[in-house]
Every structure is written in structure tokens, then in C-alpha cells.
Amino acid sequence: MTQTESKAGSSPALQEKVSETAEGFQVPGVAVGIMVDGREECAFHGVTSTENPLPVNEDTLFQYGSTGKTFTAAAMLRLVEEGRVDLEAPVRTYVPELRVKDEDVAGTVTVFHLFNHTAGWEGDLMEDMGPGDDCLARYVERMATIEQVSPPGESVSYNNASLSLAGRVIEKVTGHTYEHAMKELVLQPLGLTHCYFFPNDIM
Fold this sequence. Notes:
Elements: E1 4-5, H1 12-24, E2 29-36, E3 39-46, H2 68-81, H3 103-108, H4 111-115, H5 135-142, H6 160-174, H7 178-190, H8 199-202
Antiparallel strand pairs: 1-3, 2-3
């Protein structure tokens, strides 16, 4: 796809680089925003869908995928700043019901291990727990079945399960659902009014 669309506030150099990179990697559509000396600059390339090719612009919504881990980390650091979470504390300080196959690990794995991908258990527990407010609680229950591959802190392995558990820590500390807590801790303070968790919210 080579369709591009420049918007106010974009520099020709940024637009050229975004289009060149997107075409090189065969990315159907992308939006890029950066801050330069206090100014917002943006560039857009391509289309929203190869099946329904509308130009990408500043209102295009993208599924954020694993970049959500960055949002979760930002929320956790807000709680650290407020003195409500200690990154070096065992996860069970906040989620006492945590069970994994290795009981020693369940008692010693820290919040920090969750974020640096060193908890050591299998990372791809990808079961859909549904849309209910208890989905993260049920996910953490299901973690009792995943295998421990290495001791905590020993090796780095990308770990989706750990970040889901981190989301449960946020729920337990704030007393709110993950989505509600994320809005209060991250989205609203940053003015991110076009970030959504559920398709129904978008509709």
C-alpha cells in the first residue's frame, strides 16, 4: 500500500520516513506521533484495512496488542510513587491467593519479576476468560496449571501471564477493575480520551 495522507503538524521528513519504512515492511497502515521541542508532529501512511481501504488519519483506532504492557507498567509505577506497591515485595503481598505449580515460587516471586519477564513460568496462557469483571481473577486461578521453566530471576523469557498477574495486582491494590484503574492512573492523566478496552465502547 502506498497511499499516504499528510496532516497539519507533520514534517515532510517525518512523513517521508514513515512512508518509506511502512512500504519497506509492507505495513498496510500506520500512524506516528512524536514530540519535537514541545511541538507535536505526526505522519500517516496507508489504509485501515486491505478489505475496506480507508485512509489512516489522526482518528484511526489501532489495536494496541502487547504495547498494553507499557500502560500496565506505567499504572504500576504510579502506585509505587504513591507508596501503595513495592516492586521488590512478593506478589502474594497483594494477591495472597496466587498459586503456581512451584509453591516456593508462588511465595517468593516479586512484582518486579513480573515486569522484567523473569518469573520463570510458561508465558503463554492465552485462554479467553470472558468479558466479566472477574476475568483477571479467574486467569490467576488458572495460572496454577502452568509449568515452571526456571527459577525466578534466572532467565528472561517474554511472559504474557506475568503481565496479566500484574494487572490483577493493580486490581487488588486499587479495589477497581483493571480497566477502571487504568483510566484513573494512566489514560485520564495523559488525556488519552480515544483509548478503549472493549469493542462495544468503540461502537
